[in-house]
Amino acid sequence: MSRRPELHDGYLGAQEEMAKVGMAPLTHKREEFEISDNEVEIKFNLSDPVKVTTNLINCKTDKDVSEHVFVQMEKSAISFQIGFPESGYYKFQIFALRQSNSSKSLPNVYNYLIHCKQALNPVYPCPKQYVEYKNGCYLYEPKFLNSSVRLRGVNFKICVPNANHVALVANGEWTQLENKGRDMWELKTNLDQYRNKNVKVTLNANFVDDETKYATLLEYTI
């Protein structure tokens, strides 16, 4: 049985800078809660677009496992999809700033303590998110891509506002996604040949007139 960690007064919940950022909890309004499995989605309302980063810390080992947090922006909300690799207590820390603020330093705005009672589902690292992805993109699938999951007939579906082209790059091979309208891009492809080869797979978008210039959105490792 894991023991609840000791936390200093004022650590949990909204921090001093919270009101300035314009965020408010939408789904989990209690700053300490437990879950019966090892996946949860936490949403916050937003009054303005924000820059955000997070820490997910395993209290037993003090290890940062933030690669299991995937951040998605919606119209007036932000979603944190979290997988917990093992049971126990976790500190989930949110750092944020309005996008209009040019400061590079993001203050801590909210802290949760989450007790994961049992870890029955396999959890995998989320794809690495680059700056361009955070400008209104939304990934529908795949949320995970690695050598432990199916790599034949992989469906890619992503919303990329204002993109001219979107391409998948796997081991130097480029494949264009098809524009389905309303900023939606899709592709079905096989990646089984890269299994266990530690290959990086990226989603990239072209936003400018120069068709050779692509910005990286997401990066997976197979």
Automatic annotation (TrEMBL):
PANTHER family, alphabetized: HILLARIN
Protein name: KY-like immunoglobulin-like domain-containing protein
InterPro entries to which the protein is assigned, alphabetical: Ig-like_KY, Transglut-like_Superfamily_Mod
Domain KY-like immunoglobulin-like: 15-127
Pfam families: Ig-like_KY
Organism: Patella caerulea
